[in-house]
Amino acid sequence: MIAALFEGVLRHGLALLVVLFAALLAAPYIVNSYLLAILIIILYYAYVGQAWNIMMGFAGQLSLGHALYVGLGAYTAAALFVKFGLSPWIGMLAAIPVAMTAGAIIGFLAFRFRVGGVYFAILTIAFAEFARVGFDHFTWVGGSSGFFLPVANYTTSDLWTLRGRPVMFYYLILTMVVIAFVLCRILLRSRIGTFWLAIREDEEAARAIGIDTFRYKMYAVVLSAGMTSLAGVFFAFYYNNLFPEQVFNIARSIELILAPIIGGIGTLFGPILGAFLLTGLSETMHAILQGLGVDVPGAKQVFYGLCLLFVVMALPDGVWPWVARKLGLGGRKP
Amino acid sequence: MNRKSNSSTARVSRRAVAAGLGAAGILAGTSPFNILRAQGAALKVGSLLPRSGFQAGIGQDCQRGVDITNGILKELGYRELQIMNADTESNVDNARAQAEKLISEGAQLLMGAFDSGQSTAIAQVAEQKGIPYVINIAAAPPITEQGYKFVFRNFPIAPVILGDAFVNQKEIFAATGSAPKTVAFLHVNDTFGTAMKNGIGGIMPKHNMPFTIAETISYDPAARDLSVEVAKAKATGAEALLVVSRLNDAILLTRELVKQRWSPMAILSMGPGWYEDQYLKTLGKLSDGPLSFVPWYDPNKKVAKMLEAALAKASPGVNMNTNHVYTFEALLVAADAYKRAGSTDPKALADAIRTTNIIDNVSPGPGIMFNEKGQNDKLKNSAIQNRDGKLVTVAPKEAANAKVEWPLKPYDKR
Question: Under a CB-based contact definition with an 8 Å cutoff, are residues A250 and A129 in contact?
């Protein structure tokens, strides 16, 4: 099984993967708490990016409303914890079907009525907006005044209730990234992955050769929604407060998809590299400007935007395919 | 290099012991000077504000309060603070990361962050690291309900803001001997507007107000035309307008009132918009009259006058407002705690903040003091009125500097 997972991976690629994984495992013992907080953000975006990549990168369905699934996961687990004292792990078991159901409804409406491309994207935005407005009025979970999880100064970490120090959250999100990566690798090498790629490349042709495109697109949406909801659970228990305006916001949806777009849509390493690049670039900009004594609000974002523009123009397939080619790891999009 | 150091730790010579003892003696001898130096150094305060992103305007306004603080602290006999600025980018993720960064760079106290979500994220970091955190502006009650030891808030919580608004309205009605019997309630349907609407619905009945709400009319924050909404409000026959708005819609509503020749008895605003500089500048004479019920400042207090003068010098044409006042006061709390603690030790600072009793302050009420939860529950809110491009405080009486102009001067007679 494990051998099959690494089948086709070049030896030096494997070595790089091991080094990266070891570095990430050791990071909490090496970096300070600020860098640990940054690494948590990076891994969070890498995970959500990977989940979104299933839908867009593999199956070719553009979602611009993935904040919906984050929010549903976050609110479901947080409400079960606060109102009924249920562990977030049980909350996850509830969050996944809730998000999957929402994904299934969107997918069914879109695919049944042949809504595709940008129209499908607009539909996903619309549902995220419905959720935002709905949760603004859903006073059982605080409505627009926000929903707060009880917090305290934790000296130890309790994995069962996810109450604890940042290092626990770091290893949790690292585990999620690894599992998502492995799952995507398995999926890509399976029949379903092949069907998704066929749909992505040419849906008409895929249908012509007998692929049930409706079913496989639904699988992609539902799986992506379920995975994304787990990021929501993480978000709720790490930040401990939820505001519909922040959680379901369209800007949040855009943030979630930037990593795979920059890293390389449809690639396994794209979301991870993209997350490292985006957050790393952002923090580097900040450090440079601070070093130069520049304290102009928004200057960082302007530089950040210019760099993104450069990446998008110079490397339209994303950064990972280019890096992979340079490292002799292939680098073709699956 | 490593081998050398390893060998030296493995075999300790008498000479090394003597040198070590000598060094220890020098350290012991000079340590009192070190303590003095620590006391002499400025307190490093990490200021976390949303200076970019969707809250940028407010964050930059708060920053004006930060920028004028040191001069006033000096005049009040406090040590200047070493401000370390950080931008939360109006984002909860970044707020948390920036708090971590400031602490890792040596911040001994944190201040900010205008928004409840961002403030909650920062509070967790501060509590975990044992670094005192003074919230300047954030109204969600749960922040100080968590049993935190290092988190303090000198800003009224949302139910107090709403409750005080009704108390001040009744004071105005009593002073003028006139009150509307019905109001039309117009509110923006964004997160803030919806929260206020729900809050008003819950709190208003407890205050036995003389008016009833004839109709509640909501509108989109991005609306470019509010003629229908104003016509609808006018058609209810309401005597006054109760509004929860933002800046743009406040301007649109006023223009519609003028166009539709409707001058209600009063415009009672429960949020921003109607008192903002841009509103006053854009509408000129037409901006006069609306009453806003907000966390404000006591214009009669000495420090308020100092703050006003400093702001006028640093940012001419900018009226002093909530953002400047409460940001300044958060830093005042820090400077006062440092002065009394005589140390930058976080625990000593937190203990000093807990026993804060600043009477020479800016906000209305008896002063700055914190309850066992770290909340200043003695704060009062004000009613302010636009008058000739300026803002005057008309209630509560003890924090007022003008009498209310009542009723609203008709728009066609200005």
Answer: yes
Is the minimum CB–CB distance between A49 and chain B shorter than 8 Å? no
| Distance, C-alpha B291 to centroid of its chain | 19
The whole domain housing B391 covers 159-294+382-413
Specify if B63 maps to a domain: yes
pLDDT tens digits for B142-174?
Answer: 889 888 999 999 999 988 999 999 999 999 999
CB contact under 8 A, A245 and B121: no
Is residue B1 domain-resident?
no
Average pLDDT over residues A216-236: 97
B182 in reach of chain A (CB within 8 A) = no
Separation between Cα atoms, residue B120 and residue B99, nearest integer Å: 11
> What is the domain-level CATH number for residue A140?
1.10.3470
> In this structure, is residue A333 part of a structural domain?
no
* CB contacts, 8 Å: B104 with chain A: 32-34
Domain count of the fold of chain A:
1
Q: Record the pTM.
A: 0.83
DSSP for B175-216, please give it. Answer: HHT---SEEEEEEE-SHHHHHHHHHHHHHGGGGT-S-EEEEE
B38 lies in some domain: no
Chain B residues 209-238 with CB within 8 Å of chain A: none
B137 contacts chain A (CB < 8 A): no
In a domain, A15, yes or no: yes
User: What is the distance in angstroms between the Cα of A147 and the nearest Cα belonging to chain B?
Assistant: 9
**B285 and B204 assigned to the same domain:** yes
In-domain check, residue A334: no
Q: Are residues B84 and B134 in the same domain?
A: yes
Q: Three-state SS for A152?
A: coil
Which of A32, A243, A301 shows the shortest C-beta gap to B191? A243
Check which CATH number belongs to the domain holding B204 and give it: 3.40.50.2300
Is there a contact between B142 and A148 if contact means CB atoms under 8 Å apart? yes
Q: What is the pLDDT of residue A1?
A: 62
Residue B392 near chain A (CB below 8 Å)? no
Distance from CA of B246 to the nearest CA of A (A): 16
pLDDT in tens, A282-328: 888 778 887 888 777 777 778 778 877 888 889 988 999 999 988 88
Structural domains counted in chain B: 2
- How many angstroms separate the CA atoms of A104 and A124, rounded? 12
Task: Name the residue of chain B whose CA is nearest to A143's CA.
Answer: B195
Domain co-membership, B217 together with B277 = yes
Stretch A165-171: mean pLDDT: 94
State how beta strands A147-148 and A241-242 pair. antiparallel
ipTM above 0.95, yes or no: no
Q: Do residue B120 and residue A137 have CB atoms under 8 angstroms apart?
A: no
Q: Which of A35, A240, A294 to mutate to test the interface with B (most CBs of B within 10 A)?
A: A240
What mean pLDDT value characterizes chain B? Answer: 89
Tokens of B370: 């914190």
Residue B21 within a domain = no
- Report angle CA B273, B274, B278 to the nearest 5 degrees: 70
